[in-house]
Amino acid sequence: MADPLPPFERPDVVYRWDLDKTYLDTEFSTIRGLLRAAVESASRKRTVPGMRSLLVALSATHRARVIVVSGSPEQLRGRIFAMFALHGIRCDRLVLKDFGASLRRGRLRAITSQVPYKLRSHLDTRVWLAARDEDAAEVCFGDDAEVDALIYCLYADVCARRVSETRLAKILQACGAYPDDISGILGRLSTVPRGDPIRRIFIHLEGNSPPSRYGAYRGRVVPTFNALQIALNLAQDGLAEDSVLVAVAEELVREHRVPADGLAGSVEDAARRGLCSLALARRVLHDLLPRTAAFDAGFDQAFGARAAKRLGATEPPRAATGPIQPLPYEKLFEAEQAFAKARKIAVRTAGRIPGLAEFLDSSDD
Amino acid sequence: MKPSVVIDACSGAAAPGGIVAAAARMARLGVARVVLVGDLPMLQAQLNLVPYNPMTLRLVAANAPLLPGLSDTRSQAANARAVLPVAMALLRDGEADALITAAPQDIVYEMAELHLPRLPGCEALASAAVFPTVARSSGKDPLALLLDVSGKRTQTAADLVAFAKLGSTYSRVVTGVSQPSVALLSTGLDAGDGPPEVVEAHTRLRATPGVRFVGNVRAVDLSRGFADVVVADGLQGHTVRGLMEGLTTLTVEAARYAWKTKVTWRIGLRLLAKGVAMLRKVSEFREYGGAPTLGLQHLVLVANPDSREIAFENALKLAARCLHRDLQGELAKAMQPQAEPERGPQVRKPRRGREVIGG
Q1: Are residues A131 and A261 in the same domain?
Q2: Beta strands B126-132 and B229-231: pairing type?
Q3: Which residue in chain B has the smallest CA separation from A298?
Q4: A196 and A268 part of one domain
Q5: How far is the C-alpha of A160 from the C-alpha of B85, rounded, in Å?
Q6: Number of A–B residue contacts, CB under 8 Å
Q7: Number of domains, chain A
Q8: Out of A261, A353, A356, closest to residue B4 by CB
Q9: If A67 and its partner were Cys, which of A93, A192, A343, B273 is the partner (CB 3.0–4.6 Å)?
């Protein structure tokens, strides 16, 4: 793997990203989507609205390492690096799945199973950072299509040694790991520096997930609907500046034609769900967004003032934070599997809502 | 850009969970952008349980004083009086294009009169309702329009004529019938039957361009499908609508009773299952997508207070269709004093029996 030299001595922060459905708008669950991802050029790859600007702006304002761990095939490495170069993002580590090796060894389960592969890759990149004497806080980005929330939480618990080796072995077994995968991961633990590097875990709600799906993670993950909500949450803790919010909002408006009420709705929702304070939401609605390209989408001072006024004065209750406890990973994995199955059925039947197709047809006349 | 529809999320039996679920689903499917108005913590709690997208679904606070879904009319009225002014302000400020509510119709009427501008030429508002009929010659839509059902006495013949224009335009735009037939609800079929304002309205409607007036219709003939639009005095219309809904409830209860009581009846119902489902589809007022309050510059759809989740989905589709086809623009044109007739007035011959059409 190429090992680009860092342009700075020590990073402030590590951004740890998943790729598909978190950064890239891909559909790997279908053969068609997989083929399309394989053949389309770097310039044609579609990103999840706002995510490109978010990562570019975050990288520009912080000394940041960008680590990408994805379940995409290794064969896409060249195209993905080319895409990041086009976007102006320096990707420090890109870990992709070696489908060929799994096939050669007849390990079909390894192709579909994400937990052992991703946990091992995260631990490897943690060791890579430690080898450079870097122990910056990490902000993780994943999505609800896979088990990213579980993987990131498990990674944090393993790094902090909140999960014993015996327990980890059981969890990995429950998640479909092969015995040598388990021993490989356990063997790495001695080289992983002790400590909890995870500052925040964002889960992009791409699929059919309600936010309550992540209640089982006891407040350790932040479910977000879009890049603007991520930026708001980071800004709330001083991890993102106004320039990040502006960049994301401008991409949403200019490239994805998000209307004024779409932006306002995202900010309001973030405030209601405690992702940011009312004061920050009010400032963004009243002062910041009307001065961006959102103005052209109808987000003028009057609209911003009305939206800010509607936020009210009562701060929504924030989840109480206590000492972090390991999660019931086996149960969570079962629930995630069940949800993935239900999601597949929902996606398959979405086009079959009685009368909807007729309605959509007739409203185009 | 998709139209924006504001929903009173504290009204009706489905509130708030059913309304929130329907709104979230329709917004995600791209039918419309939705704004839900109600008690924020309660709405957010419901929203957390369903997939949604805050870019297409917003919440706006209104201090609904009581829990929604309560069946007593005082609670419903109190909620409506708190929520509707906020929802209507969104329409006035241009932040939404249409309003859907399942609040009691008289409160909607009262709030609309207070908070929303009227169409020029409309002295009174007309609350509409749909009702099932046998197949009409105009098309496949099993539902005809009845207005006014507000429960208020309609004072003048001019109001009835205005209602005929509004109803005819609504029917044309929404159902696609090129020249909907319009009838007046009266006590008899002759031009001279009924109270003075109905008699006068009959005469004036015969000479009203753009309205295909087919004469009087009696309550007993409503479901026989002689007209696409039936214009009625608000009190009469209200009574007729209530009676129809009551009969539907009675029929459903009778079927339930039959299902529980005898095995043979149950088998009979099984054999008739398809037919019963079809009948239910057209007669189940709790699943209708609501009907408009006409005469306003904004689109206001009122669903039955007992509406289920599906009714709100249907109401959203209906609102999107009305906005897509510029219903409000067409209504404004129809109410212009010198509106050009699309075709001269025409009294249609009855399809079944001579007794139907009066005048």
Answers
A1: no
A2: unpaired
A3: B95
A4: no
A5: 54
A6: 77
A7: 2
A8: A261
A9: A93
Answer whether residue B352 shows pLDDT above 60: no
Q: Where are the domains of chain B?
A: 1-116+296-326, 124-257+335-359
Cα–Cα distance, A198 to B42 (Å, whole number): 32
C-alpha distance from A11 to closest chain B C-alpha (Å): 34
Question: What is the C-alpha to C-alpha distance for residues A235 and A271, in angstroms, rounded to an integer?
Answer: 12
Q: Cβ of A363 and B320 within 8 Å?
A: yes
Q: Strand pairing partners for B216?
A: B184
| Residues of chain A with C-beta less than 8 angstroms from the C-beta of B324 | 363
The region, left, alpha or beta by phi > 0 then psi within -120 to 50, assigned to residue A92 is alpha
A130-146 pLDDT, tens digit each: 998 888 999 999 999 88
Give every CB contact of residue B267 below 8 A, 6+ residues apart in sequence. none
Asked, for residue A323, whether it belongs to a domain, the answer is no
Kindly report, residue by residue over A266-303, the tens digit of the pLDDT: 999 999 999 999 999 999 999 999 999 999 999 999 99
Bridge partners of A143, per DSSP, are A204
Instruction: Pick the residue of B48, B90, B324 with the most A CBs within 10 A to test the interface with A by mutation.
Output: B48
Report the distance separating Cα A282 and Cα A275, nearest Å.
13
Cβ distance B48 to A212 less than 8 Å, yes or no, reads yes
Do A182 and A84 sit in the same domain of this protein? yes
Protein fold of B1-116+296-326 = Rossmann fold (3.40.50)
Q: Which residue has the tokens 């398959």?
A: A348
Best mutation target, A230, A359, A362, to test chain B (most B CBs within 10 A): A359
Domain B124-257+335-359 matching CATH 3.30.530.20: the answer reads no
Q: Are residues A249 and A188 in the same domain?
A: no
Is this prediction's ipTM beyond 0.90?
no
Q: What is the pLDDT of residue B286?
A: 67
A165 and A92 fall within a common domain: yes
Same domain, A202 and A72: yes
Residue A310 contacts B where some CB pair is shorter than 8 Å: yes
Contact B33 A259 (CB under 8 A): yes
Say if CB A249 and CB A294 are below 8 A apart.
yes
Nearest to A223 by CA among A324, A309, A152: A152
A314-332 pLDDT per residue, tens: 787 766 667 888 899 999 9
The answer as to whether A356 is a domain residue is no
Amino acid at B316: L
Per-residue tokens: A215? 């209640």
A257 vs B contacts (CB less than 8 Å):
1
The structure tokens listed for A227 are: 């890049």
Same-domain pairing of A169 and A43: yes
**Which chain A residues contact residue B142 at CB under 8 A?**
none
Nearest to B359, CA basis, from B180, B205, B202: B202
B57 at interface of A, judged by CB pairs closer than 8 A: yes
Closest-CA residue of A relative to B324 is A363
User: Minimal Cα–Cα distance from B54 to chain A, Å?
Assistant: 5
3-state helix, strand, coil split of chain A in percent (to 5) is 55, 10, 35
Q: Nearest CA to B296 among B78, B80, B126?
A: B126
Cβ-contact B308, B280 below 8 angstroms: no
Could you tell me the two tokens for A57? Answer: 């702006």
Q: In this complex, is the C-beta atom of B21 within 8 Å of any C-beta atom belonging to chain A?
A: no
* Same fold across B1-116+296-326 and B124-257+335-359: no
- pLDDT, tens only, B252-307: 788 888 888 888 888 888 888 777 777 766 666 666 778 899 999 999 999 988 88
Contact A350 B29 (CB under 8 A): yes
Q: How far apart, in whole angstroms, are the C-alpha atoms of residue B49 and residue B34?
A: 17
Point out the residue among B48, B56, B61 whose CB comes nearest to the CB of A262.
B56
The parent domain of residue A296 ranges over 242-313
Cross-chain residue pair B33–A261, CB shorter than 8 Å: yes
Provide the token pair at B78: 């109190």
